[in-house]
Specification:
Blueprint (H helix, E strand, L loop, with lengths): L3 H16 L13 H11 L9 H12 L1 H7 L3 H15 L7 H27 L12 H25 L2 H14 L3 H5 L6 H41 L6 H15 L2 H11 L3
Helix pairs in contact: 1-2, 5-6, 5-10, 6-7, 7-10, 8-10, 10-11
Length: 269
């Protein structure tokens, strides 16, 4: 990586004149090469994390985990599971498609988490950033301070949805995994390492409870249709295929999508 840095600096010195319009220019209207080299050299200074390839790689690896973490600490898990159970209960195979279910889950998640996101943005006070370079240690320190301030609204959201039983479970397991008293004292029930798995388990539990309630009427329709076909001697017909129109009719009559969306959103108020 260190051998690549001079090459990157040279490439930056070559590209800067192509993308920068401001600054001193020569007779031809192009930026002098010396000025471009100065800009490229000051972009990555001695106080920059770009001079530490290992730190930069770790930062990029951490950023790649952000979507996964966001799914685990938001309402996405519960919503996506409930919508998948609804599709299975209807027996419509791949209708709606997985992309549609995922998109609807993302939209509802953004709608539900918008107040939490706004509270996190206000707590972070991003408008007070004064770092001149993205990779400077000062900017990284400001990002860490903003993250520490922004995590409190998220912590309050998780605590609101986590059951005491699940929190106690992961708290006790965390204590058992740590041997020394000093390590045990550093763990509390409000830590994200405790709240996050407890939140996911609680969300899955609620999603399965909702799925059970949604499945019951459709199972009744399947049983009625199967008994009718058996009484008529139509053994070659699939009860699932025959009952699908009646399931869709029931779902439309009760305005199923409206009730499901309303129930999922109201559950987080």
């Amino acid at each position: 990586m260190r051998r690549l840095l001079p090459l990157l600096y040279g490439l930056a010195a070559f590209l800067v004149p192509l993308v920068v319009d401001a600054g001193p220019r020569g007779r031809s209207g192009a930026m002098p090469l010396e000025t471009a080299k100065d800009i490229a050299s000051t972009t990555v200074n001695s106080d920059s994390f770009a001079n530490r390839p290992i730190v930069l790689i770790l930062a990029l690896a951490a950023l790649s985990l952000v979507p996964f973490v966001l799914m685990m600490v938001t309402s996405f898990v519960k919503i996506s599971v409930v919508l998948s159970i609804v599709r299975s209960a209807l027996g419509t195979q791949q209708i709606p498609p997985t992309q549609v279910i995922t998109g609807l889950a993302i939209i509802l998640t953004v709608y539900i988490m918008a107040p939490v996101g706004q509270a996190m943005f206000k707590a972070a006070r991003l408008d007070s950033f004064e770092g001149s370079s993205v990779f400077s240690s000062r900017t990284v320190g400001q990002v860490i301070e903003a993250a520490n301030a922004a995590k409190e609204p998220l912590r309050a959201f998780l605590e609101k949805k986590v059951t005491s039983k699940d929190r106690a479970l992961f708290y006790n397991l965390a204590l058992k995994m740590r041997k020394t008293p000093e390590e045990k004292e550093g763990i509390s029930q409000d830590d994200f390492i405790i709240l996050t798995p407890a939140f996911v388990v609680s969300e899955l539990k609620e999603a399965f409870q909702i799925g059970f309630i949604l499945f019951v009427p459709f199972i009744v329709i399947d049983m009625v249709v199967a008994n009718i076909l058996l009484a008529l001697g139509m053994h070659m017909l699939s009860p699932t295929t025959i009952s699908m129109p009646f399931k869709l009719l029931l779902f439309v009559l009760v305005d199923g999508w409206y009730l499901i969306a309303k129930g999922l959103v109201v559950g987080y108020l």
